[in-house]
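Hi R.,

As promised on Friday, here is the backbone we talked about, encoded as structure tokens. Could you run it through your design pipeline when you get a chance and send me back a sequence?
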């Protein structure tokens, strides 16, 4: 028997196959794939591998190590989670914004009270008195300084004696006024009492005080015997040792609490506290030193004689307070102080620009805590009596709120993992990439 032609067999097979395909149902030929479920978990949920650094958007096994992933929750902690994270809470307090600025400086003379002894007439120095010798001589009003040979004064004495003899009242009055301007009224009085004119007069100090030490080399030169002096040539500079000045630098964050005229507490290493001294803030610099970020504070001290000397190292304690408008208040009058919400520094997370705290939003009967993010507007930083730092809260929290002070960073990190609002992501983190690609 002869075999059928190959072409005929192929054609018959194609016809038969086409008929069978036409008779089969569609579902037997094509399996419709189920749509990919992009929302297998609730929007915003995060699932983390307990072993590897992998975050996903739906439950299942970790694609890296195969371990079962666990759901990441944010803002809610069980008692065990609180214990493991070391969470501690504190209640937002209400109180005044009070600080104590501490600064150190060396005392100096208060040069507002520096005086100068000078002759009002020309002449030649022929004698020096003790006030011009030695260091730091204390002198009283009327203490002799130098004897001055002065032809001008000698001639004026002769004119006064002649006017007195002639009874020329107007001339006598004019000459007496001249002697008063020269601070030589005693010489005119001596002539009026019948004394003979003298060519040498004594220049006396019209002030009391102490000769300024660092001017003494100049004094020695100015009062050298035989030296000719002109009117108003300085002979001595006198200072009041009862009045000193202390210049200190206060950090700008503390200086904003201070104001001129307020009291200052002083102490020194050798005397301890110095409550007997009257010290006040005399002047606050109107600019901030850009290098050390501080303001210069000038403190005026009275009653310093026999207690402090120029050059003494002095510690200053300056109490400051803020009014309700955040301007300096009277630290001695609590009625002028404002009251603010205060929280510990440890409760604040900050980027330097954005500040937040984690506030307790609810408590469950089983001990679970629910936290919520509280953006903050901060005021100045304070320090309490125990040395702990506090912040004035201008907005974001109110007295009575509870905030976390320990474990705050872990709470915030948990919120970042869960993709919810946190310190770095005010509107929630960007969703992590899915485990597949299209």
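Update: got your reply. Pasting your designed sequence below so it's all in one thread:
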């Amino acid at each position: 028997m002869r075999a059928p032609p190959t072409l005929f067999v192929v054609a018959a097979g194609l016809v038969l196959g086409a008929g069978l395909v036409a008779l089969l149902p569609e579902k037997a030929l094509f399996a419709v794939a189920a749509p990919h479920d992009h929302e297998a978990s609730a929007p915003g949920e995060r699932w983390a591998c307990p072993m590897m650094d992998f975050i996903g958007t739906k439950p299942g096994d970790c694609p890296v190590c195969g371990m079962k992933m666990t759901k990441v929750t944010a803002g809610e902690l069980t008692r065990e989670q609180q214990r493991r994270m070391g969470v501690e809470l504190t209640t937002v307090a209400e109180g005044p914004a009070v600080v104590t600025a501490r600064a150190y400086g060396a005392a100096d003379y208060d040069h507002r009270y520096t005086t100068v002894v000078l002759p009002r007439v020309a002449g030649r120095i022929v004698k020096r008195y003790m006030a011009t010798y030695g260091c730091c001589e204390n002198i009283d009003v009327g203490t002799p300084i130098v004897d001055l040979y002065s032809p001008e004064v000698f001639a004026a004495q002769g004119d006064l004696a002649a006017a007195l003899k002639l009874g020329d009242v107007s001339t006598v009055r004019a000459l007496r006024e001249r002697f008063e301007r020269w601070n030589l009224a005693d010489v005119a009085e001596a002539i009026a009492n019948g004394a003979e004119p003298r060519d040498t007069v004594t220049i006396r100090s019209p002030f009391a005080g102490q000769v300024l030490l660092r001017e003494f080399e100049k004094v020695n030169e100015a009062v050298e015997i035989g030296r000719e002096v002109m009117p108003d040539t300085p002979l001595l500079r006198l200072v009041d040792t009862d009045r000193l000045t202390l210049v200190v630098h206060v950090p700008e964050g503390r200086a904003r609490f201070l104001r001129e005229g307020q009291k200052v507490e002083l102490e020194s290493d050798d005397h301890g506290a110095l409550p007997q001294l009257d010290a006040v803030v005399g002047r606050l610099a109107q600019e901030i030193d850009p290098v050390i970020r501080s303001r210069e504070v000038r403190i005026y001290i009275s009653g310093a004689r026999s207690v402090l000397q120029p050059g003494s190292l002095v510690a200053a304690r300056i109490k400051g307070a803020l009014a309700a408008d955040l301007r300096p208040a009277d630290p001695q009058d609590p009625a002028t102080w404002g009251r603010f919400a205060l929280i510990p520094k440890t409760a604040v997370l900050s980027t330097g620009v954005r500040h937040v705290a984690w506030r307790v939003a609810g408590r469950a009967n089983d001990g679970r805590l629910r936290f919520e993010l509280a953006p903050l507007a901060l005021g100045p930083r304070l320090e309490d009596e125990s040395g702990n730092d506090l912040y004035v809260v201008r907005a974001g929290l109110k007295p009575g709120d509870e905030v976390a002070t320990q474990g705050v960073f872990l709470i915030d990190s948990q919120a970042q993992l869960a993709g919810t609002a946190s310190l770095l992501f005010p509107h929630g983190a960007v969703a992590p990439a899915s485990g597949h690609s299209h």
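One thing I noticed while checking it: The chain has nine helices and 27 strands.

Thanks again,
M.
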